[in-house]
Write a structure and sequence with these properties.
Phosphoribosyl-aminoimidazole Synthetase, Chain A, domain 2; six-stranded mixed beta sheet; 2 domains; 11 helices; 32% helix; 60s Ribosomal Protein L30, Chain: A; alpha+beta
């Protein structure tokens, strides 16, 4: 048996069972960011994410500045999914010895610009030699105690909502994979230049019962919410807000919205009475249920049918990934 047999998420579950933290840790493994008790008014947030060449990006698709930008945005998205604000970052680079120093400087230019945008201090990091280029950012943030929103708070008979348009990340990846980047570079922008929903996350966290970003696909993140909150989900595929790009690359754009990743949109549950108070543009795509399963209705030709989805989203290790999403 190896990691291709058990997959990324089973590996995380096994690691989580071994870890015992002190009372300082309010939330450890199992959310978008770790939460550490800080003072009477706020908590500390810690998250880390890595981009690996030929897994998360390719040099013939992305400029160095875009690679650096994306490395920051995926981490800021984790802070956004907790209702917090990012404050400081550490950057770790693994570089082949043949790497052009100017290329590295341009990566840092992209990192620096996005950190300046989010008012994040770059406070250190590490550089090491390796066979493939990878960028790992550890991001520190903070969140007020009354604004912290975890994955575990959803209850039955609540609304399920998302920000923005779905499917654009996977659609952009498909365009990049098509090989004609001179023609498709602008269209693939949502994949090459994703943007975290930081301010939206701040506003949503005040009213939502659970919150998560859609980095590994909508259905995959629903599974994470189900595991954490103990509720199920009924999703209406007809209500999914589809990005126009999805209709250019797939005959079934709803599939991209359900299983595509690299969205950095936010998925949240909220009580009906609280949705009226939320001043963030979002789309209701379903509701929570007492039965722990994920069902989808509203497919073309099967509007009255319900399909139970048992997939967990993109997985780095499984031989047969449970998502239709692929990475090159």
């Amino acid at each position: 048996m190896d990691l291709q047999d058990i997959g990324e998420f089973e590996l995380i579950r096994r690691i989580r069972r071994q870890v015992k933290n002190s009372r300082q840790v309010l939330q450890g493994i199992g959310d978008d960011a770790a939460v550490l008790r800080h003072d009477k008014k706020s908590h500390l947030l810690l998250t880390t994410d890595a981009l690996v060449e030929n897994v998360h990006f390719r040099r013939d698709w992305s400029s160095p500045e875009q690679i650096g930008r994306k490395a920051v945005e995926v981490n800021v998205s984790d802070i956004a999914a907790m209702g917090g604000l990012p404050t400081a970052a550490l950057v770790s680079l693994i570089l082949p010895a043949s790497t052009d120093p100017l290329f590295v400087e341009r990566i840092y230019r992209g990192i620096r610009r996005r950190c300046r945008h989010y008012r994040i201090d770059l406070v250190g990091g590490n550089i090491s030699r390796g066979k493939e280029l990878s960028i790992s950012i550890t991001l520190l943030g903070r969140v007020e105690r009354d604004r912290l929103c975890l994955r575990s708070g959803a209850g039955p008979d609540e609304l399920v909502c998302v920000t923005g348009k779905l499917g654009k990340g996977q659609a952009g990846l498909m365009l990049c994979s098509s090989g004609d980047m001179d023609k498709d570079a602008d269209k693939a922008g949502p994949f090459l230049r994703p943007r975290a929903r930081l301010q939206e996350g701040r506003a949503i966290a005040r009213f939502a019962t659970s919150l998560i970003d859609i980095s590994d696909g909508l259905v995959g993140e629903l599974h994470r919410l189900m595991d954490a909150s103990g509720v199920g989900f009924l999703i209406d595929a007809a209500t999914l807000p589809l990005h126009p790009l999805t209709k250019l690359v797939d005959d079934d754009p709803r599939r991209l919205a359900l299983f595509g990743g690299d969205e950095l949109e936010l998925l949240f549950t909220i009580r009906k009475k609280d949705l009226r108070r939320l001043k963030v543009r979002s789309t209701i795509i379903g509701r929570t249920t007492r039965e722990r399963r994920i069902s989808v209705q509203g497919w073309p030709g099967q509007e009255d049918a319900r399909t139970v989805m048992d997939r967990e989203g993109y997985d780095h290790f499984l031989r047969r990934p449970r998502s239709s999403r692929t990475r090159s």
